């Protein structure tokens, strides 16, 4: 039993395509993982920066702040007289991150302008919110670290 030349060509073409798709899929999967790990590392680094910022302004260690947040206090209440300075610093940090996104080409300047217009109100609401361990920069899975639905 012999296979016709057309059938042989079809089998070779289909096999080549299947192997190519498999290789592309493997290449994409291997490339996606480092991006995911890099994104997680960047997210964690940003979280640590915010946490250090909150701790330095309020003047209380992170563990105490987290404990008080879990007990139902707001970050604003914990900050007390330093609440205004905390909001100013968090707004500056958010603005810096928005500007960096524009510089990196990840955000349009129009969107940045829109986000910056609401950043003070957003940060103030986060600082005044009762969230358990989810206040800005404090606690795992905590705040919305940016301005928008992706953050």
Automatic annotation (TrEMBL):
Name listed for the protein in its UniProt record: Unannotated protein
Organism in which the protein naturally occurs: freshwater metagenome
């Amino acid at each position: 039993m012999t296979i016709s030349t057309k059938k042989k060509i079809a089998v070779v073409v289909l096999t080549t395509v299947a192997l190519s798709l498999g290789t592309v899929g493997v290449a994409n999967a291997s490339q996606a993982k480092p991006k995911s790990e890099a994104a997680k590392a960047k997210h964690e680094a940003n979280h640590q920066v915010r946490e250090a910022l909150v701790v330095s302004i309020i003047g209380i260690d992170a563990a105490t702040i987290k404990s008080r947040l879990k007990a139902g206090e707001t970050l604003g209440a914990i900050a007390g007289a330093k609440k205004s300075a905390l909001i100013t610093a968090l707004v500056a940090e958010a603005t810096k991150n928005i500007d960096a996104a524009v510089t990196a080409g990840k955000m349009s300047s129009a969107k940045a302008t829109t986000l910056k217009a609401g950043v003070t109100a957003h940060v103030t609401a986060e600082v005044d919110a009762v969230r358990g361990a989810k206040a800005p920069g404090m606690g795992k899975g905590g705040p919305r670290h940016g301005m928008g639905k992706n953050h």
